[in-house]
Amino acid sequence: MASKVSPALVENSDDVESRKSDEERIKIKTIEFGDVLLLVGSALSAWAAANLLYETILPVSGALGFVVVWYVLFLLISWSGVRRIHGAVRAKDHLVRVLVWSGASLAIVPLVLIVIYVIGKGYHALRPQFFVEDQRFVGALSEATEGGGSHAIVGTLQQVGLATLIAVPLGITTAVYLNEVKGRLSKPLRTVVDAMSAVPSIVAGLFIYAAWILALGNQQTGFAGSLALAVLFLPTVTRTAEVVLRLVPGGLREASLALGGTEWRTTSRVVLPTSRSGLVTAVILGVARVIGETAPLILTVGGAFVMNWNPLEGKQDSLPYFVFRLIRFPQEAQIARAWTGALVLMMLVLILFVIARAIGGRGPDHIGRFKRYRLKRKGLA
Amino acid sequence: MTFTETTTTTPVIPTSNEGDSSTVRAAGLSARDVACWFGTKKVLEGVTLDMAPGQVTALIGPSGCGKSTFLRTLNRMHELVPGATLGGEILIDGVDIYRGAIPVTDVRRRIGMVFQKPNPFPAMTVAENVVSGLKLSGLKVSRSERDDLIESCLQKAGLWNEVKNRLGDPGRALSGGQQQRLCIARSLAVSPQVLLMDEPCSALDPTSTRRIEQTIAEISSSVTVVIVTHNMQQAQRVSDRCAFFLAAENEPGRIIEEGPTKDIFLNPHDQRTNDYVNGRFG
Questions:
Q1: Do the bridges between strand B111-114 and strand B29-38 make them parallel or antiparallel, or are there none, so unpaired?
Q2: pTM of the predicted model, to two decimals?
Q3: Inter-chain contact B132–A269, Cβ cutoff 8 Å?
Q4: Fold of A150-365
Q5: Which domain holds residue B134?
Q6: Of A3, A259, A379, the CB nearest to B133
Q7: Complex confidence, ipTM
Q8: Does a structural domain hold residue B151?
Q9: Residues of chain B predicted below pLDDT 50
Q10: Cα–Cα distance list, B206 to B22, B202, B239 (Å)
């Protein structure tokens, strides 16, 4: 870990490295030339065999089927090749390695495609004014570059921010109860939290609509939306935080108690700071769970075309709802605006996560700039 | 060794129990007929032992004989294990720590503990670790007192010279032996009257072990020390008195013999003690 090395040591080792760079070191070979040759050869012969099988012998056609046949043949041929050269054990190892590699690569494909697709669709109508204007003077027939989605951005930030303010303290308190207090209600509570995480998001929206808006007679507001989001946020942050707290070694709690620490001070000064980066992950997962939610917002925030800075009064918009509404218009310009909204939403998520990681993402051993400053003021560094 | 006043360099933290007394002195601990259970399994029975103020008492015996369990009853750490119960009496300076009027947090602050595995708080720097006990138990000190406390505790733990320029590093950036001495310094910072040590050197190199043994010798005038150790030489080197624990198969552990360390090692009354200290079993 870099944090364990003092600056003096780092400089020193750099020095040493530059002086001794001509010293010969062992290069660890991870891939042998012969293995690469075998893989390329297998791929080529599998392609040839697949061509033969698929195009001339089998009564089917199509690109997807061809790739599947090619892949299976490649597995077989390379497996038998490795088996001939290195034996059955290495061959099985090779087979699993190829499967794992191709599985991982395959999983990334849709992710990358989504990002590329949204960027491709959304960047046309992306202008600086998208971040400052709303849809107040924009009709369905206006140019796609006219107006903006600032009202939706503000709505999303306020709703998710309020939901975070509601759900994170509740969730972490619940996690502390489940893991530190270990009270009699832990078991039923854990079951309830699990059940809550399976609540469909539209049901969360309906619940707030029925309980908060209809029964209590409140308006559709940004705050109502954030309540619905908090319902979805809470189980995610609770469960993740509970797992994170469980990772804190019991020895630290004992050490704190053995110093005469109370339960609360042990939790607040030892357990929570030790798991800070994990708790930030819990919050990130929670935000990720809700920031793209449309269904719970349709019934609760109401949607709007103009900026509403007040989440407590009047209808608000949100980016997912903005996208959902505009994408169903027949006009090209509206659809382009929707894609831009989707792109901005993705950018927003990226920015939020980078900020969260920068604030609390490192391990407990890491002393950040802010903490260093605080320590200096207290004379502890 | 008997009641000994601390030297004047020791910073003093006034506490509710000691009022304004300007010194912290070692306290005597005594266990009367202590028995321990984990659930329904009885692991310790009839343990009666006096740990005189300012003395070092070593608890020896083979693994699984209840030494550590006994040690953990002495500062109420035993009850933290789910299903763990105990009977008997444990007195600090004549006051029962379980039934008496001393709050559990005060018991644990007055009777400190060093664990087998070094466990500095990862989210704190070296300096913060030393004074963490103050924050955790709600003791307030001025900034200059705190700085003195950091230095004097690290001095006592024999760590000051190695870390005086690294006080702002994370606690876990130190080596294993240094971490354990940091933990000792941390325990000393709340001015305990008794220090319990559960195999404090079992994970350490010989140099760190020697350093910790020196520390024990230095602090034992102001703190009563109870140490669990598997190392017979260590028990001989550091302790004034020794208690030999043994558990027969499927029986709870008991004290077989207890007395001045010299007698236990050179002139034991019980054959089993003789066999154990001479390495013939266990």
A1: unpaired
A2: 0.80
A3: yes
A4: MetI-like fold (1.10.3720)
A5: 29-277
A6: A259
A7: 0.88
A8: yes
A9: 1-22
A10: 37, 10, 18
